[in-house]
TrEMBL record:
Positions with biased composition (Polar residues): 27-42
Keywords on record: ATP-binding, Kinase, Nucleotide-binding, Transferase, Tyrosine-protein kinase
Keyword Nucleotidyltransferase applies: no
Record GO cellular component, one term: plasma membrane
Family that this chain belongs to: Belongs to the CpsD/CapB family.
Keyword field contains Manganese: no
Region (Disordered): 27-49
EC number: 2.7.10.2
UniProt protein name: non-specific protein-tyrosine kinase
Residue ranges constituting the AAA domain according to the UniProt record: 110-241
Length: 299
């Protein structure tokens, strides 16, 4: 029995555990949370709009990303690119079948881990890049790890305002913090400044309305939140209540079974929880091809 099978044994009673492309996933159903009617203040957003308002253009440091082991946009056939094609498929399928499977806000995905250093930010960025490279998918990546943000640094992007500024000041609009990258279909919101009441801001009504609006108004977009580790800060559990899908990144042969069990328990109220075994050094046979996850996730 593998480390993940052992780790999720306790969670078996909470939902259906299935094999999925070399990963294991846990699906947990709960009643849908009622929607809230509101608007993005002064943003000029219209219901069903297919374009972001007043996009601010930024350029990603693609060479630095490739050097640090992220997906290389110049090599669409790399092993890493293929691995994330497998990883994203069940998430995308859940979004496409949301009306039938009852997943509320299925286009909002939270990437988290139990502890620091398990590779959640690596997964967040690569998952966003992989989905953005599809012809009919648009991605918004939000750095919600407000205590230790790293996405803007990894992408080589600077922004004077981010999520914290939006939550703190109702005069800051959605369009003020939205960044459009030079990769078509890929937009970004940075974490913003450090704030001593960041947990309270993330648990505020304004944050809930933000999640509700971005999910409902941009149904053709997939929103990925990179969150703090679950067992280090309470913010991840707060954010998990706002999204339809959660990916729990687990460092192979490093994260204790008891730690994984505790994280799964904290996510028990989420509609869908999938686990991603990262940094494993053994090859996994997927559709007749051997894939190794040992080459990435070391941040």
């Amino acid at each position: 029995m593998s480390i993940i099978e052992n780790a999720l044994k306790k969670a078996g009673s909470q939902g259906l555990v299935v094999e999925n492309g070399g990963q294991e996933s846990v699906t947990i159903n709960k009643p849908n949370r009622s929607g809230v009617e509101s608007n993005f203040e002064s943003s000029g957003v219209k219901e069903g709009s297919n374009v972001f308002p007043s996009e601010q253009q930024v350029v990603v440091d693609w060479s630095s990303l490739a050097e640090n082991g992220f997906i290389d946009n110049n090599n669409a056939k790399s092993q890493l690119a293929e691995e994330f094609r497998v990883i994203k498929r069940p998430l995308v399928n859940n979004i496409q079948g949301a009306e039938n499977n009852g997943i509320n806000r299925s286009n909002l995905i939270l990437i988290c881990s139990s502890l620091p250093g398990e590779g959640k930010t690596f997964v967040s960025i690569n998952l966003a890049l992989s989905i953005a490279n599809e012809r009919d998918k648009k991605v918004l990546l939000i750095d919600a790890d407000v205590e230790k943000p790293s996405i803007s640094k990894q992408l080589g992007i600077n922004s004077p305002r981010g999520l914290i500024e939006y939550l703190e000041d109702d005069k800051v609009t959605f369009s003020d913090i939205l960044l459009k990258t030079d990769l078509p279909n890929f937009s970004l919101i940075t974490a913003g400044k450090r704030h001593k009441y960041s947990t309270e801001l993330l648990s505020s009504q304004r944050m809930y309305l933000f999640a509700e609006e971005v999910s409902r108004r941009y149904k053709d977009r997939i929103v990925i939140f990179d969150s703090p580790p679950l067992l280090v800060a309470t913010q991840a559990q707060i954010l998990a209540e706002l999204v339809g899908q959660v990916v729990l990144v687990i460092a192979a042969e490093a994260t204790p079974q008891s730690v994984v069990n505790e994280s799964v328990a904290k996510l028990s109220n989420c509609d869908v929880v999938m686990t991603l075994l990262n940094k494993t050094r053994k090859e996994i046979d997927i559709y007749g091809h051997n894939y190794s996850y040992g080459k990435y996730g070391h941040l």
